[in-house]
Fold:
Amino acid sequence: MIRRDVPIGWTCLSGVDWLTPELVDLMKRAGCIRVYLGLESGSNETLRQMNKRVTVERGIRAVHLFSKAGISTAGFFIVGYSKETFESIEKTFALVLSLPLDEAWFTIPLPLPRTPLFARVADLRKWED
Structure:
């Protein structure tokens, strides 16, 4: 894309684990204008419960790398995960407000059949009249 001097900007989804300043610079030179990051939570404990292999600190670093390079960022967050506490939800909102994000998206967890989350909340599906 750099050699062809593509005149349009592009966006992408990215993880936060393997980013380096060099890779982010390369993305910028190739025309990247926005990156969407699945940051999910401001609590490392909640991230572990989600079986994410990332940390809050890695997410913070990623947002700052993109921001420094002039690439806008959007973060995806999940609020209300099983066993999440009021304090961990507050950590998520505090994280969002502390970061130079251009957009923040919030969703609730969706327990899909045959997933660990579905198994964990299966008893909650038994509604009483």
